[in-house]
Amino acid sequence: QVQLVESGGGLVQPGGSLRLSCAASGSIARIPVMRWYRQAPGKEREWIAQVLRDGTTYYKDSVKGRFAASRDNAKHMLYLQMNSLKPEDTAVYYCYTNKGDWGQGTRVTVSS
Questions:
Q1: Which of 12, 74, 83, 103 is deepest in the core (most CB within 10 A)?
Q2: How many other C-beta atoms can be found within 10 angstroms of the C-beta atom of residue 48?
Q3: Quick one: which of 21, 17, 36 has its CA closest to 75?
Q4: Gap between the Cα atoms of 36 and 47, Å rounded
Q5: In 3D, which of 25, 26, 22 has the Cα closest to residue 35?
Q6: CA distance 62 to 105
Q7: Does an H or E element contain 7, and which?
Q8: Cα 9 from Cα 38, distance rounded (Å)
Q9: Pair 77, 23: CB distance under 8 Å
Q10: For the segment 10-53, what is each residue's pLDDT rounded down to a tens digit?
């Protein structure tokens, strides 16, 4: 089990970019799958991206082509580069391991 801490959220204008980071307290090298989820106000938490141990990525259709997830196993880090942000991307973003570990979330607000 690892502790996860997200950072990098904030207020950004539509069309802008943010890079989220997720720092793990221990090694993630042997964790097969790490994921990003988000929860918008009044909505259920939804999966948006995942990164396999070998760097293979998968995305929810609504973020495909705009978001890029990556991981650095040596630094125990997971990242989410978010470009062309839209107001509907406003949410709290969480990282997750398939061992069942969650971070506390970082808030992203896309607004002019």
A1: 103
A2: 24
A3: 21
A4: 6
A5: 22
A6: 20
A7: strand 4-7
A8: 12
A9: yes
A10: 999 999 999 999 999 988 888 999 999 999 999 999 999 999 99
Q: What distance, in Å, lies between the first and last C-alpha atoms of the chain?
A: 39
15, 82 Cβ separation under 8 angstroms: no
Quote the CA–CA distance of 48 and 93 in Å, as a whole number: 9
Enter the DSSP assignment of 103: B
| Residue 52 tokens, joined | 């396999």
Give all strands (DSSP E) within 9-111, no chain letters.
10-12, 18-24, 33-39, 46-52, 57-59, 67-72, 77-82, 91-97, 106-110
